[in-house]
Design a protein that fits this description.
The chain has helices spanning 4-16, 26-39, 47-56, 71-86, 93-102, 118-129, 133-147, 169-182, 187-214. 61% of the residues lie in helices and 0% in strands. Helix 7 (133-147) packs across helix 8 (169-182) and helix 7 (133-147) crosses helix 9 (187-214). The protein is mainly alpha-helical and 217 residues long. It folds into two domains: 1-105, Hypothetical protein af1432 (Orthogonal Bundle), CATH 1.10.3210.10; 131-217, Methane Monooxygenase Hydroxylase, Chain G, domain 1.
């Protein structure tokens, strides 16, 4: 079967995301694809499904900024339209839609839905790896700036298991970024992202220390 759909999908995703926020743009999708293909060298999976899922997992963010929590629902609608148009194998479309639906499904979420599908778990890991390291920090900072969330908040973070609080950037790096590494599905995913995880963890400690020292009374 021809793989022409790959270049067609890449072109479509690139054009669709043109001018969109760097937090969830084409290059985030491209990096997710890179990590996903690396993981799939060690974890058995259908690489067609992994390829399409990586490029499409966050496609629902654009034009739905007021409903970001439901970006997977918008993404499924787009993927349902695009995949048949580019000649993606019909029998695999449902699996790609499941990736989009569950890529942000975390063990700490209220609607957590465990899966045994390696393709889904690979994209979950690849997406989470792009939230680590210097790139992950830049994405967090960009998102906080866009949303006008605080860099620093002197009040103690609430004692809660809720992951996304928008309390301040340092707290969010600890609460979400570091936690994403701990929730990677595969040991191989942890192995290839350990350096990025350590960078993020050390940056968090340094940022927290500098902010606390700067605001001592």
């Amino acid at each position: 079967m021809s793989n022409n759909w790959k270049s067609k999908l890449e072109k479509r995703v690139r054009e669709y995301f043109k001018g969109y926020s760097g937090c969830h743009d084409y290059y985030h999708a491209e990096r997710t694809l890179k990590y996903a293909l690396e993981i799939s060298k060690k974890i058995q999976a259908d690489r067609d499904i992994v390829y399409a899922g990586a490029l499409l997992h966050d496609i629902g963010y654009k034009n739905n900024s007021k409903d970001e929590g439901d970006h997977h629902k918008f993404g499924i609608k787009i993927a349902k339209k695009w995949l048949p148009e580019i000649g993606f194998p019909e029998g695999k479309i449902g699996e790609v839609l499941e990736i989009i639906r569950l890529h942000d499904n975390f063990s700490w979420g209220h609607n957590y839905e465990p899966t045994e599908k390696n393709e889904i778990k690979i994209i979950q890991d690849a997406d989470r790896i792009d939230a680590l390291g210097a790139v992950g920090i830049a994405r967090f900072a960009m998102y906080f700036g866009e949303k006008r969330y605080p860099l620093y908040d002197p009040t103690p973070p609430p004692k809660t298991k809720v992951v996304w609080l928008n309390h301040d950037l340092a707290d969010q790096l600890r609460r979400d970024g570091i936690k994403k590494y701990e929730n990677l599905n595969f040991e191989y995913s942890k192995k290839i992202s350990k350096t990025q995880y350590n960078y993020l963890k050390n940056f968090y400690k340094t940022l927290k220390k500098e902010l606390e020292e700067a605001h001592l009374k």
